[in-house]
Amino acid sequence: MRTMPHLTTFDPARWRAYAQGALRDDLVAALVVSVLLIPQSLGYALLAGLPPEAGLYASLLPLLAYAALGSSPVIGVGPVALLSLMISQAVAHAPPGVPPHAVALVLAVEVGVLLALAAWWRLHALAALLSVPVLQGFETGGAVAIALSQLPALLGSGARGSSLPQLLASWRETPLPWWPLTALFGVVAIVALWVLRKRAADWLSRMMPRGRAVLLARLSPLVVLATAIAVEAITRSGERGVVLVGALPALEWRLHAMSFDLALWRELLPSAAPIALVAFVSSLVVAESMARKEGTRIDPRRELAGLAAANLAAAATAGMPVAGSFTRSVMALDAGSRTRMAGVFTAVFMGLAVLLIGRPLALLPIAVLAATILVASVAVFDLQPFREAWRYDRAECVLMTLVAVLTVVMGVTWALGVGVAASIGLLLQRTARPHVALIGRVPGTEHYRNAERYEVELTPGVMALRIDESLLFTNARQLSDVVAQQLVRYPDTRRVVLQMSPVNHIDLSGLAALRALHDMLAGRGIRLDLSEVKGPVLDGLKAGQWRQWFGGELFLSHHHAMEADGPVR
Amino acid sequence: MRTMPHLTTFDPARWRAYAQGALRDDLVAALVVSVLLIPQSLGYALLAGLPPEAGLYASLLPLLAYAALGSSPVIGVGPVALLSLMISQAVAHAPPGVPPHAVALVLAVEVGVLLALAAWWRLHALAALLSVPVLQGFETGGAVAIALSQLPALLGSGARGSSLPQLLASWRETPLPWWPLTALFGVVAIVALWVLRKRAADWLSRMMPRGRAVLLARLSPLVVLATAIAVEAITRSGERGVVLVGALPALEWRLHAMSFDLALWRELLPSAAPIALVAFVSSLVVAESMARKEGTRIDPRRELAGLAAANLAAAATAGMPVAGSFTRSVMALDAGSRTRMAGVFTAVFMGLAVLLIGRPLALLPIAVLAATILVASVAVFDLQPFREAWRYDRAECVLMTLVAVLTVVMGVTWALGVGVAASIGLLLQRTARPHVALIGRVPGTEHYRNAERYEVELTPGVMALRIDESLLFTNARQLSDVVAQQLVRYPDTRRVVLQMSPVNHIDLSGLAALRALHDMLAGRGIRLDLSEVKGPVLDGLKAGQWRQWFGGELFLSHHHAMEADGPVR
């Protein structure tokens, strides 16, 4: 277990232990993460359609807020790519005349409040709404949408857009389609970044141990950025139309810029809700993945509280929603982060960076930043999960693909809405069409298996059925029909035994269906018995006073039920 | 099996057999049903906010159309109470200036087309959306709403409304709150109807066999109606302000009154969809109940086709949606109906009635019709299902009550929408919180049961768990956590065996969760084995190439899995 001083209560002994133990590791990890965080935060702010400093400032206070309330020792909170994509789409659909930073500010407050409410009302289970196919499709589609959205900045076009139709429309309307000098910066940066990503670790591992080489290689984009700044300082291409990051305004309290237009707040809520869900789920995925590596457990509710605090802090100082970043968290873990204090130190380093390297950063061409985002997105793009899903379950693969395509074409809110609805639809459809097995005895054992898959013995006159689903309203109407179909094949049946081990619940509709089945069979002179009814299900049946109509017997094991069939009672 | 001539192919031999066999029974049943259908169809048209003849005409062609395409031999298609309530609510919310009959006409066409599309696309499974609590709540709330909506007509008030707030608002606005002479007709009719409903069967059974007495007693409302007509003919109270049914216009082709205002069609679609669903489900419930009594099966798709044809026929001639009526179907069955020809004869008798008794019917005070509807609704009102639901499952009882209250207060569309969403929500919540059982061996057997419910033997170092749910996206995130919680209780565990018999499906999210569990356990040096994996689930795992990461073993029976635990391999 990690030793970590409480931030709220001051205990000198624990702080001393910390200073002698984990402090150094946390400082190193914070330094490494900060170096990666500087270009990421600038780039993600631009991706969101906001001024670059918004990203830097979103990497200061939110880190402290998460460290105070969150649970994970390594999770890196701040601007993240997919959230920035969602912000840019919300900005693009905001009413005309509202500046992007005002939209993002309202979003950040709403996301913070929604997350805080979710923590209060214990709604962490809602994370389940984003199933694996939805998340995977969203990530893949998001990578494509992010890469596409960077093309204009990369080529020096004034076009903007975060979904394909927007981008095409904007591209057609923009008078200057591209600017050769900007494009030169962009394309050279892409090539350099790609080569470094593929080769840097190998090159470095000739000089140092492999682990450290891999870690350092992740910082290689910094070389490209520094080179670009140097080239810009020499050539002064900014004076010939290449757009630069520009001087960063000082950190200031942002809340004074808050809009109190209720209509705007209401209009942005449908964007804020999916942003809050994605912020929570992506942070949770990161935290879970880290916890698995560490053998620890995470508390989803504290995760919600930490994220809520981080987003409210982001609203106060930066004005853009934040979440846990996968790349930076992996980096923090690999760099040896030991406690949440690493996040505090990262915030301190970022603050120093704003003060110390603001002037060189101002010279960075935006096309080069765009190139780092594009390369990072393309590197994430992976079709392997689609191939695996296709092999496992075609319907889920179709869902995954649909979500990916909708993310690019219609925007994230649409894609997630359709994805969640379709996930629920698939689940309902599965429960609606249960697999039905006629079961028989595996010779010489007390085990009963599907007669179509195994060589089994059937008992004449007794039909043993296993219906592989709970009895729910989705399938209740079919229960009698399924049994009646089997009776057509075995017309001399005088007893039906339902093996109930797959039945995890019986709802009111299922109870009515069981009664209808019992009565239908009784009308034909056939007896209905049940075997292996689970405890909670049986409790329910008793509460429903089923003995008033049920005339059959209950057996603890299916074998007993079949053995009991001597002369018909 | 029933002998019934095909309506489409003329086969003299079969018709001759029919004429000598079932013809007489069908004729008698048709006569009895027609006698009941006359007041019902008038009343339900008024309930829907339409002129009374709409109900009569909705009982002619639709019966023929259903007989041609439907499947049930006894189901009585025509105006039904709950559908009329829904029509009246759609009429009340229609744009101002559109007359009620135009609204109902568009609804009938839309309902017919939706049902036809549902038949074509094989969407009969959508009937499952109306779970038992939703249907029961809707029926109870509907009975209350119908009874309330009849109060103004009964008391001679001009107020109108089919939901409580509408009714109260309208009542307050109406200048003349009630009319004593009308109220006299209404109240006397209610008392007479109620006494007849409670006593008529007993009185009649002194004169005839009980079965026939019960059947005849159901026709007793006719005595009240005939008396009211006679009183009206003598007192001519219609001239003193008592509203009468009035002269019936001749049957005519209605489609010429059709609105082609696309905006109206679009606006009515959200009302037509739940009407179509309710028409289908209530007819299906009737057909299922009849089929169970008869030991036959029904074909939901043919049911859809028959209803679609009936509604399109209703649109052409009457202009109101129709469905299968429970009371009239039970009556047809009890009266001995043998084939779908009974429906044809009912249509013929209804046609004769329109021609022959139109003049006396014109004298019927509407307050008396309202009294028949009110008494029929109150008689249906039953709290027993709520009590039973409370004992069985409180959440479903709350849902049932919510749907009933919403039906009265907000209208049927709202109530059904909330009900369906809440049913799905309850199902998701159930799958999200699986029951977890630590299982042990029932001494001296090969059976394994929940250690908290049975006296069982546990194997030291081996944790056998049964998670009573499929592994789905709703619960995937909790799988590792649930096992980790158990590991806290049994820290010396070196092997975990999951008994998989309750697992009916594993979706992609569940597969990822199983892999995460496997890796989490492997990280702690614990081995994961599975027992009793079902065939379809195993097929899926194999397709997902799980052997690439799964290091444990599969056992056909849980007992084998536990026996296998000699020295740890």
UniProtKB/TrEMBL annotation, chains A, B:
TM region positions: 27-48, 60-82, 102-123, 176-196, 216-235, 268-287, 308-327, 339-357, 362-381, 401-428
Record InterPro entries: SLC26A/SulP_dom, SLC26A/SulP_fam, STAS_dom, STAS_dom_sf
Cell inner membrane is among the record's keywords: no
SUPFAM superfamilies: SpoIIaa-like
Lipid biosynthesis listed as a keyword: no
Biological process annotations from GO: transmembrane transport
Membrane topology: Multi-pass membrane protein
Coarse class of the protein's main subcellular location: membrane
The protein, known as: STAS domain-containing protein
Species annotation: Piscinibacter terrae
Organism lineage string: Bacteria, Pseudomonadati, Pseudomonadota, Betaproteobacteria, Burkholderiales
